[in-house]
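Q: How would the structure tokens look for this protein?
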Amino acid sequence: MAKKYVFSWEKIPGTDDKRLKEFLGKKYHIDWVYTAEIVKSEDGRAISITKEDNTLSLTHNSEDHEVILKINIETDKFIAKEENGELNIYAKNNNNIQTFTDLDAMAQYLRDQEKRVILIFAYNGIGKTRLSMAFKNLGKKDELRDTLYFNAFTEDLFFWDNDLKNDSERVLRMNTASRFFDGLADLEMESRIRDFLHLYADFKFDIDYKAGHIRFWRETQKNAEEEDEAILIKVSRGEENIFIWCFFLAVVQLAIDGQETYKWVQYIYIDDPISSLDENNAIAVAAHLAQLIKGQKQVKVVISSHHTLFFNVLYNEFRYAMKKEKVLSCFLKKNNENKYELQKTNDTPRFYHVAMLKELHEVSKSGNLYTYHFAILRSIMEKTATFHGFDHIGDIIKPEGDDLERTIQKRYVQLLSHGNYSHFEPVEMMEENKENFRKILKEFMEKYYFNPYLFPKDEIIEANT
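A: Here is the predicted structure in token form.
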């Protein structure tokens, strides 16, 4: 097993203090450790490193020849080895977390993985869509390309013509200048799309490739010649999204089947295909997508999402394949140095609301709070409200408090989780918003019980008020 020397147990406190602090600071992104105090227990089996409210501990387990590190709610293990009369401590090379300075480097890493399917979970604002574009761009060489992708830009290839002049001929237009639509007119796409669409929707459609538009209807009426004529409709935003998704799936099927027009496809990258779907459709889309790509060996597939339910359904669909090392599951986030981290999650719990609450707990203590953390907090609160039978998150925000304070806290969560800044480049919170965030999070965690092993009561962040 590859390992790295960290420190000598006998030289702490002592000559190895600086070496240990530098290792911990860089590896676990904790700046406070550099000026912290180090104390060893009287029996010599434990080392404590503390500064103000921050603390970590190292405990020697002689039976298992290891040292256990505990930082707040995180734990890690090191190798303890007797050498030349000293107890030397080594770090195992951790291949579960990969760090990248930019998304291009991460995209290349994903391309280099010998996996048929890669699942990535990340909240909005981290860079999922930008990662999909970086991945796609790495596969472009002059006019050649190798990635068929679905993301927010794919949805933008379709747009509505509402026929404002006559108010009758509403159609969904296709940006036929895009290569996405090349050659589709000869491939009977309507029947291919219907094979997928009937699972989700009840409307009918036809495609006019020459005019570059799509018509929708549910009912027909007789025209002057007594022929059935479609009563055109504008489908809802959710129905439009599911249609575009089924359009994409039909193209994916062509690529998987090795159809001549799509033999260039080596990778399929899918980013958040369920932006306007309800929970039932989220489950159906995830299960259907898994069935489509399971077992195929034609292309490699990367799927990223911020939707917990969608991701968990996919995870469980591919769980067996993960054991055979054909599928990789990852959690994407940014660390305290503003670098990107990709953490393998094959061996960790799949309940990401807990992982996200852990993340919020940590950034509350470190002070590295960004506007998108309010979006994460809102998501957790909405799930909690639903689980407890409430209609709104306002019902679970400080329910014992006076109405005015509850209203103010509710407004903070709503407003600061909905701005455009929550979904693109992360923006650090102002100090006043950080204090309000800490207060709301602290009261929420005190009110609703979580595993005390993950969230010890004495470690719940105190609001700076």
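The radius of gyration is 27 Å.

DSSP finds 13 helices and 19 strands in the chain.

Upvote if useful.
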